[in-house]
Specification:
heterodimer; A: about 270 residues; mainly alpha; about 75% helix; B: about 280 residues; alpha/beta; Rossmann fold; 2 domains; 6-stranded mixed beta sheet; 3-stranded antiparallel beta sheet; disordered C terminus; Bact_Polysacc_Export_ATP-bd (chain B); ABC_transpr_TagH-like (chain B); AAA+_ATPase (chain B); ABC transporter ATP-binding protein (chain B)
């Protein structure tokens, strides 16, 4: 069904996306299949990268600079609990910047709601994140770290907020990169800086108090704290959760607006 | 008169000629119409209705908006002005290999591509045999798609897309690919679909194909709809308009032949004679 006026109303867009949900599942499954079809290690790659990086930082901070471990104890658990969601954030943002260009052949040959191509990136990286959770669980068992009951709430909520935030960023970024190709490079650099500016390697509580507001303002930092709060419950602050929810929804609204506004022009560019 | 299945209402699409497009700020905050310097109308004020079961051929020289029109109907381009209403699913035979992934096997690809175009799993399983048989790739079902020859790729793709159970077919010169035997099969398939009462929308330069399938023609020139009428009339008009072009090509071929005779070109480059031999002698 083609009705060119559906480009206007958000409700009609929602309905179109809902109608294509089966195809979204199909695409996500395909992504995972393609990712693993040609590699010997397959699933291992999902966890190998964050795991190795975590080991490097763990060795650096708890052996080389043993006196000033910047996170909670056990540090490797602290690192992984931040590194895995960060990996989701990082790969989704860099992939969704290219999402429209890299699936341009599909976009030109199928009449699907174009948001699908971003949702698919968010979802397939999200699934990979979930696949990597058993590794963290393994470390929790090895170090005999107990879980706090609040993870039953905070963990799913953190996943939802992360997905909302990423969808917003992805929608906006995907159309902007088509119009301004340089943005793709910029995003890579920005992500690297943002990694150090977010509390992945260190804990906000170990920072000078004057600086902390910066981290509260950064929604990614808050989401990382939420992911960690099931293991280290002192990170949970419901006001921050509320703030992150509002910011994520705003980012989604802005990203979607940009997407809708530029969609027509972008289709001509592909 | 029944409800039209495709209704195109005064659509226009703007393209830009140079690399630069409008600034982001303009695109975001101004809904301005009209063309500026460096822009042109790819389609301008096109309106027509299509009744279910009609077979329409679109003609026009390169770059006059045929594919743009088809893409707009397929919903992969959005018009800058006007509106397109399509009451039914579309089987787009445009860039048909688009949904295929090189690394996956033909089998996986058939499931994926058919799924992307909206076919259910059971439906695909039911017509899987038929798809494979039609594409004549029984021996390569578990071969990665990238290892197929380019003709085979198109065969698989055509076979999947033409199996879609949609009331509207859009065909954009995909039939130029594939060997003669397969092309004939494609034509038969299209005939079969037409006889089931589907609506066909076809872009072609071949008079034979146009008159074989279509009943109504649309002639596009410089983005506007010049003629909308019975196919024979439209084709005649189109060929008489582009007469100069044909003369030019004949002259070029004549020159090539002369060069070949002088030994400047390889004999292998020789094209088929088009009955111009007599002319040639008088020139040389």
């Amino acid at each position: 069904m083609v009705d060119s006026s559906y480009t206007r109303s958000p409700v009609a867009r929602m309905r179109a996306i809902w109608g294509a949900r089966k195809i979204l599942f199909l695409l996500v499954r395909r992504d995972l299949k393609v990712r693993y079809a040609n590699s010997v290690l397959g699933y291992m790659w999902t966890v190998l990268d964050p795991l190795l990086m975590s080991f490097v930082y763990w060795a650096m901070f708890s052996i080389l600079f043993a006196r000033n471990v910047p996170g909670d104890d056990p540090y490797i658990v602290f690192l992984l609990a931040g590194m895995l969601p960060w990996q989701w954030f990082n790969s989704t943002v860099s992939q969704s910047a290219k999402a429209l260009r890299s699936s341009s052949r599909l976009i030109r040959s199928t009449n699907l709601p174009r948001e699908i191509w971003i949702l698919r990136v968010v979802a397939s990286n999200g699934v990979e994140f979930l696949f990597s959770i058993p590794v963290l669980a393994g470390f929790l068992i090895a170090y005999q770290v107990p879980l706090h009951w609040n993870m039953l709430v905070t963990f799913p909520l953190a996943i939802v907020l992360m997905a909302v935030l990423l969808t917003g960023i992805g929608l906006g970024l995907s159309v902007l990169t088509v119009m301004v190709p340089d943005l793709d490079r910029l995003v890579k650099i920005f992500l690297r800086l943002f990694f150090y500016a977010s509390p992945v390697l260190y804990s906000v509580t170990k920072l000078p108090p004057d600086l902390r507001w910066v981290y509260v303002a950064n929604p990614v930092a808050d989401i990382l704290q939420m992911f960690r709060s099931g293991i280290f419950p002192h990170y949970l602050e419901w006001t921050h959760v509320g703030y992150t929810a509002v910011v994520s929804l705003l980012v989604l609204a802005l990203g979607w607006w940009l997407f809708a506004r530029l969609e027509r022009t972008v289709l001509k560019e592909l | 008169m029944t409800e039209p299945i495709i209704s195109v209402q005064d659509i226009s699409i703007r393209f830009h000629r140079s690399r630069r497009h409008r600034s982001l700020r303009d695109l975001l905050f101004k809904g301005e119409s009209g063309v500026r310097a460096g822009e042109f109308w790819g389609l301008r004020h096109i309106s027509f209705d299509v009744q279910p079961g009609e077979a329409i051929g679109v003609v026009g020289r390169n770059g006059q908006g045929k594919s743009t029109l088809l893409k707009t109907i397929a919903g992969v381009l959005i018009p800058d002005e006007g509106r397109v209403n399509v009451n039914g699913g579309v089987a787009p035979l445009i860039e048909i290999t688009g949904g295929f992934v090189g690394d996956l096997t033909v089998r996986d690809n058939i499931y994926l591509a058919a799924g992307l175009h909206g076919m259910g799993k059971k439906q695909i399983a039911a017509s899987f045999e038929e798809i494979v048989e039609f594409a004549e790739i029984e021996d390569f079902v578990d071969t990665p798609y990238k290892h197929l020859s380019s003709g085979m790729k198109v065969r698989v793709a055509f076979s999947v897309v033409s199996r879609l159970d949609e009331p509207i077919m859009l065909v954009d010169e995909v039939l130029a690919v594939g060997d003669r035997a397969f092309r004939e099969k494609c034509f038969e398939r299209i005939d079969e679909m037409l006889s089931q009462g589907r609506t066909l929308f076809m872009v072609s330069h071949s008079e034979a194909n146009l008159t074989r399938f279509c009943t109504r023609g649309l002639y596009l020139r410089e983005g506007t709809l010049v003629l909308d009428g019975p196919i024979q009339e439209v084709v005649d008009q189109y060929f008489s308009d582009s007469g100069d072009e044909a003369a030019l090509r004949r002259r070029h071929e004549r020159r090539m032949r002369r060069m070949r005779r002088l030994g400047l070109l390889n004999e292998e480059d020789e094209e088929e004679d088009d009955g111009d031999e007599d002319n040639l002698r008088t020139v040389v």
